[in-house]
Design brief:
- By secondary structure, this protein is mostly beta strands.
- The protein has a single domain, classed as Exo-inulinase, domain 1 (Jelly Rolls), CATH 2.60.120.560.
- 0% of the residues lie in helices and 56% in strands.
- It is built from no helices and eleven strands.
- Strands 1, 2, 3, 4, 5, 6, 7, 8, 9, 10 and 11 form an eleven-stranded antiparallel beta sheet that branches.
- Strand 1 and strand 2 form a beta hairpin.
- It is globular and about 40 Å long.
- The protein starts with a strand and ends with a strand.
Length: 155
């Protein structure tokens, strides 16, 4: 990924392939934009509400994939937030888990620890934008490790 720009007030720290977000609510957004078809994968350790946003543009937060299992949540980890909730919880908060997002235009699928947990074929344009790492709980910390994007046909 070609650098990050910081949005809002989270304190971000990048050491090697480990991105740590703490403090206030905010995003670290890739300067590079991605369209489909692609696979994005990252290891996540969340003890707070966070997420990965794809197809993110300045005027549009993009599509959020939830990275936290709030008690009684309608959008647990792996949900395409507000679009397609995860069918089951496949991760444990406070432990590293592998998150994979496959996207191609209106189609998206999310896998958590190798298990398909959500999918849709009803995303709205634009179908291109940055990848954003979110820290959404003031006073807390979230970790992202080994993030990578690659072009891949999956349908």
């Amino acid at each position: 990924m070609d650098g990050l720009r910081l949005v809002e007030e989270t304190d971000w720290n990048l050491k090697g392939d480990l991105l740590t977000g703490k403090g206030k609510n905010g995003f670290a957004v890739t300067k590079q934009e991605f369209g489909g078809p692609f696979e994005f994968q990252v290891w996540v350790k969340s003890i707070v509400n966070g997420g990965i946003h794809f197809y993110r543009q300045d005027s549009n937060h993009g599509i959020e994939v939830q990275c936290f299992n709030l008690p009684d949540s309608t959008n647990p980890t792996g949900s395409l937030y507000g679009i397609a909730p995860a069918k089951r919880i496949a991760s444990v908060d406070e432990e590293w888990f592998l998150l994979q997002i496959f996207a191609d235009g209106p189609n998206a699928m999310v896998m958590v620890n190798g298990e398909r947990v959500s999918e849709t074929n009803a995303l709205k344009p634009p179908y291109k934008g940055g990848m954003a790492f979110q820290q959404h709980t003031p006073g807390s910390t979230i970790w992202y490790r080994g993030a990578q994007v690659k072009e891949v046909k999956w349908r």
